[in-house]
Design goal:
Length: 151
């Protein structure tokens, strides 16, 4: 869909930030927001406007993503919990929504990776997706993605 921001983003994902993909979904590390180490977006590869439009097959392939992501991130960074959010408020404000999920690992202790300390300053309260954005250097984002992928 021409005026859909998520469709546009899906056409030029940086392969070094892609953690995993299957026929319906792609998981991309958020280099512009690592306030929560490993924070990523799971985007539907098809223009599906609402969660209610998701077919059984889409739920199945989405479940594959959630399991892959939690297993991999748990293996490397051992978060205490995960938050899964489907917000789409900005899309709704302009009348074009496209299903994507924010995957936010939550930590009950500081985690050091590549000499950088990541603290979940909101734990165990709800995460703030916008106000506390923490961008990281591209090289660090690539290293985080590589660590989660395992290659
Ligand atoms: Zn779209």
């Amino acid at each position: 869909m021409g005026d859909c921001e998520v469709c546009a983003l899906n056409t030029h994902n940086d392969p070094r930030l892609i953690l995993f993909e299957n026929i319906d979904w792609v998981i991309v590390l958020r280099e512009d927001d690592q306030q929560y180490l490993g924070k990523s977006v799971v985007s539907c590869k098809h223009h599906i406007p609402h969660v209610a439009d998701m077919t059984d097959e889409l739920w199945q392939t989405f479940a594959e993503c959630t399991k892959w992501y939690e297993r991999r991130v748990s293996n490397v960074f051992e978060p205490a919990n995960y938050n899964w959010q489907c917000l789409m408020n900005l899309g709704a404000a302009v009348g074009v929504t496209h299903v994507h999920w924010h995957a936010t690992p939550r930590y009950d202790r500081p985690v050091t990776f590549e000499e950088t300390v990541f603290r979940d300053q909101r734990w165990p309260k709800s995460a703030r997706p916008m106000e506390d954005h923490r961008a990281v250097e591209r090289s660090l984002a690539y290293a985080i993605a590589k660590k989660i992928r395992g290659s």
